[in-house]
Amino acid sequence: MVEIKENISLKPYNSWKVGGEAKYFVQPTNKEQLKEAYSWALEKDIEICVIGGGSNVLLSDKGFDGLIIQTSKFSELKNEKLENGFISFAALSGTSKSEALKVFLKHKSMAAIFLTGLPGDIAGGVVMNAGVGTNTQPKEFTEIVEWVEVLKPDLTFKTYKHSDLDWVYRKTKGWQPGIVTEVGFKYKHEPIDEVGKLMREATKRRIRTQPINKPSGGSTFKNPEGYTSGALIDGLGLKGFTIGGATVSEKHANFLVTDETGTAQDLLDLIKHIQVKVKEAHNVSLETEVRLIGDFE
Ligand SMILES: Cc1cc2nc3c(=O)[nH]c(=O)nc-3n(C[C@H](O)[C@H](O)[C@H](O)COP(=O)(O)OP(=O)(O)OC[C@H]3O[C@@H](n4cnc5c(N)ncnc54)[C@H](O)[C@@H]3O)c2cc1C
Predict the structure, then answer these.
(1) Residue 289 falls in the annotated catalytic set
(2) Which CATH architecture has domain 5-70?
(3) Which of 56, 94, 156, 182 is the most buried (most CB within 10 A)?
């Protein structure tokens, strides 16, 4: 039987290290346990939220008044094949992106460069259609995914082909409602000798341009049409601007970082402050890329 815990702090389960407690919390290790937990919540009419790496979520200081399904133990790679010029494999949705990277690296694939430094797990990558700003190929999750399996609210597993889904900027539509359980990857096999060198360059670029040694949620805002959010925020002199324990990073203005006193409310207040300033100066509305979970003021 899957163990559903109560009143668990969510701070360790997100990259900002903020947030209150989950009323109920579960870490399934296989599909049966995941189904059991989902069924338990559905029967009791309890709201659920799935988090993987927690690197793109802002979890409320008030916590989450439902069941958090945290997937770091829901991890497995399988069915790796090299066939007809393609690398393919499947991964349970809580498998970290770095595990998928290792498979592509073994085949000296450009997909390994794409995945270099991308935090979180496979499902987070699919749900967010995670991508990189550099001009490499592949540059978004949509390019490496063949199919997505979802546990639906009627407790059946449904597999969506890539083309069944609508892959847009930092969002994938068409699989909801449900929980992403497994992902099939497929990418052309075109080995690149300098893959190691290109990965080291990608890592250096992240270290140079992102505050990766501090707690952050990555890019806070999506880039509005025709702009980059970081440039808009930087242009207003907001680098270093602080509310409570949350600060606009000096390295990258679209990254908000926290110190040990930082709270989710500090981050939200900072987000709102930036949105107001950018709207006043440029008449541009910044939409958060990070997903807000739980109740906020
Ligand atoms: C330092 C840093 C650098 C980053 N760089 C990038 C970057 O270059 N490009 C980029 O795109 N992003 C970047 N991000 C943001 C983030 O890492 C990505 O969006 C990542 O793909 C999120 O994965 P995750 O497992 O952490 O997702 P989470 O934050 O856990 O979840 C993200 C969303 O997916 C939902 N979700 C998670 N798992 C499931 C599931 N199994 N079923 C249904 N829904 C689910 C959650 O409810 C939430 O809405 C960065 C973040 C940090 C902290």
Answers:
(1) yes
(2) 2-Layer Sandwich (3.30)
(3) 94
